[in-house]
Amino acid sequence: MQPQALGLGSLVAILLFVSCGSEQEGASTAPVTGPDTNFHVMDPHSAARPEEAVIQHLDLDIRVDMDSERIAGTATYTLKSGHADQVIFDTDSLDIESVELPDGKPLEYALSHAGLLGSPLTVQIPKDADKLTIRYATTKGARALQWLSPRQTHDKQKPFLFTQGEAILTRTWIPIQDSPGIRFTYNAHVQVPKDLLAVMSATNPQERSADGKYSFTMDKPIPAYLMALAVGDIAFKPVGPRTGVYAEPGVVDTAAWELADMEHMVEAAEKLYGPYRWDRYDVLVLPPSFPFGGMENPRLTFATPTILAGDRSLTALVAHELAHSWSGNLVTNATWNDFWLNEGFTVYFEKRICEQLYGKEYASMLALLGYQDLKGTVAKLDAAGDSADTRLKLDLTGRDPDDGMTDVAYEKGYSFLKRLETAAGREKFDAFLRGYFDHFAFQGMTTERFLDYLNAKLIQPEHLQVDVHQWVYEPGIPKDLVMPTSDAFAKVEHELDRWKNGTPARDLDTRDWVTFQWMHFLRHLPEGLSDKKMDDLDNTFQFTRSGNSEVVAVWLEQCVKNDHEQAYDRLDSFLTTVGRRKFLTPLYEALIKTEKGKALAMNIYKAARPNYHAVSVRTIDDLLNWKQMSDPVTL
After folding, report:
1. Are residues 377 and 509 in the same domain?
2. Mapped to the 3 state alphabet, what secondary structure does 536-601 carry?
3. 456 and 576 co-located in one domain
4. Is 334 helix (H, G, I), strand (E, B) or coil?
5. Domain holding 414: CATH number?
6. Number of domains in the chain
7. Looking at residue 128, what is its pLDDT?
8. Do the domain assignments include residue 59?
9. I want to staple 234 with a disulfide (CB 3.0 to 4.6 A). Which of 197, 436, 490, 620 is the partner?
């Protein structure tokens, strides 16, 4: 299908769409000038008041106790104060022992009552104070931390710890100003058991130290959600001059082979939108309980082992996390209401990297799968009465910002940028994006600030006819979305029609199909399939036994929908070992649609829940209405 024709509205009307949309949402209509490194906005998910006092640098000195599952030490902050007499930090479930000046003089402080934002810590400071130290320890309620026993790791020899700070969980392991719009540099000294390695979102060792002591430096300002730490039996293997893989010893060789294109991805990204500014790009492959596909911690992406398919077919995820080095880490959403600025840009960038390395058809298949995800998410939100959450610019005040991390931010955001690219032409749009990343490097970005820049640098100069207001501020999927097409998927649909009409699975032409084609095939199976038809597919293509997590997840969802019990043992093992929320949510949603499935879901979840990170626990607890007298996120 070809993109729909552009509308014929006048330039005046188009500019009205842009400027009125900005004014209605409180945007500045001032002309765009030079970058503002002091740009701060009110963040509804942080108690910090950066206009009064804001952190600029953190010196972290901590000890990680794997036995007691506790981190303890000091956090020393360099402050920029607007002559305020207090500074406010975000904390959640932390044990604050003391707060003092560099000379040891104690400072008065108070912790507010716990709520959605945790317990804000207000410290009284002399007006000339530019440093203070907080002595603290984590508690069992630290939702950013997942402590894994040896049996929960791949090699099953030693314990493991990893952090996950996005969106507002860093405050559960460090007292911090936990807003994506507040950036700071950091140094860290970390003591761990001698037989383990520590790595962070910073400069990293490639070999284990003799004494378990490690030092880290991040000399570029980052927001708190990108603070990350992992401790475990970790090995390193390079894959290029500035790229490499960390993983457990039993995984590292497999991971290095699977991610062999990392260096080429960095080079492709630089050709598109400018130099990589973080020195190295490494990936840490975590144990399977990691709740996301990947997390773009600077210099060290944290990744799920479910990308290790054995055929390098799922490395688009690495392209996505690498792209965040520009969109997200370099230019960052100033609040979680603007989350689409991180993810929509990154999905667009990811597809451009993949197109350059693997061809246009590869990127087209990615785009079509993403569009299918977007349609499903919008339909689900509409059915739940949450159509406001299908807008790009959100209002998450009073809610957990995790609620806004849906396919809308990713895929509708991507589709908006694709619409702009189509209207402006790729060459001009690439120049615009390159200028955007350079102009706002190491700064926070609101939707309105971006729209002002878009209007000044692209909409007006190129006389673009794009309904920006509808794309950003209105719910649903705009009708002028540029519909992706795929010849490879057309072939899949042809073979699927043959199978529906009685052709045995063994006679289908599936030669050279890639992961995305199998996903498309499985997603579009008809409803009400018999065990005989399901067996025909599984006996031919071995879906239940597949080592490709993307394919297995879609297949198991179809098995649940068709009550295909032959796959339920694999369903049980998959849900018990894999903690990636993208896979968990649709499988549990499918299960609870029937009484039989709901009973099965409850039994599986009871055993699986201790293996999940708090991010996944919260989602599945809500989905299943899981009631438990103890701490609902204790892992």
Report:
1. no
2. HHHHHHCCCCCCCHHHHHHHHHHHHHCCCHHHHHHHHHHHHHCCCHHHHHHHHHHHCCCHHHHHHH
3. no
4. coil
5. 1.10.390.10
6. 2
7. 84
8. no
9. 197
Kindly state whether residues 502 and 436 are assigned to the same domain. Answer: no
- Residue 100 to residues 134, 136, 437, 531, 585, Cα–Cα distance (Å): 7, 12, 39, 68, 45
Q: How far is Cα 618 from Cα 81, in angstroms, rounded to an integer? A: 37
To the nearest 10°, report the CA torsion of 3, 8, 11, 17: -70
If asked whether residues 336 and 457 sit together in one domain, one would say: yes
| Interval 311-357: pLDDT, tens | 999 989 999 999 999 999 999 999 999 999 999 999 999 999 999 99
Q: 409 in helix, strand or coil?
A: helix
| Among 426, 447, 473, residue at a domain's last position | 473
Q: Alpha carbon of 375 to those of 55, 380, 477: distances in Å?
A: 41, 9, 8
The pLDDT tens digits for 524-558 are 999 999 999 999 999 999 999 999 999 999 999 99
Extract the tokens encoding 459: 């909409």
φ/ψ of 343, rounded to 5, equals: -85, -40
| CATH (domain of 543) | 1.25.40.320
Q: Could you tell me if residue 92 is inside a domain?
A: no
Whether 476 contacts 377, CB under 8 Å: no
DSSP letter assigned to residue 115: B
Is 25's pLDDT higher than 60? no
pLDDT band at 563 (very low <50, low <70, confident <90, very high): very high
The pLDDT of residue 209 is above 80: yes
Active site residues per annotation: 321, 410
Does residue 299 lie in a domain region? no
Whether 310 and 632 have beta carbons less than 8 Å apart is answered as no
The type of residue at 2 is Q
Same-domain pairing of 510 and 466:
no
Count of CB atoms within 10 A of residue 397's CB? 10
CB atoms within 10 A of CB 67: 8
Beta carbons of 243 and 215 less than 8 angstroms apart: no
- 82: confidence class by pLDDT, cuts 50, 70, 90: confident
Q: Chain-wide mean pLDDT for the chain?
A: 92
Which uninterrupted H or E stretch holds 133? strand 131-138
- Shared domain check, 367 and 502: no
Last residue of a domain, one of 441, 473, 505: 473
Whether this prediction's pTM lies above 0.85 is answered by yes
Neighbour order of strands in the sheet with 86-89: 86-89, 121-124, 109-111
The pair of structure tokens assigned to 267 is 């080079």
The string of pLDDT tens digits covering residues 390-432 is 999 999 999 999 999 999 999 999 999 999 999 999 999 999 9
Phi, then psi, of 351 in degrees rounded to 5: -70, -35
Query: What would the two tokens of residue 99 be?
Result: 């707060």
Which residue range forms the structural domain that includes residue 467? 11-30+326-473
Looking at the fold, whether 398 and 428 belong to one and the same domain comes out as: yes
The CA distance from 299 to 201, in Å, is 6
- Give the pLDDT band of residue 36 (cuts 50, 70, 90): low
**Domain-embedded: residue 239:** no
pLDDT greater than 70 at residue 34: no
Give residue 340's Cα distance to chain centre: 11
Rounded Cα distance between 588 and 561, Å, is 11
Q: How many Å apart are CA 405 and CA 382, to the nearest integer?
A: 16
pLDDT at 120: 98
- The answer to whether the CB of 50 falls within 8 A of the CB of 84 is no
- With CA atoms as reference, report the closest residue to 365 among 488, 265, 268: 488
Cβ atoms of 471 and 392 closer than 8 Å: yes
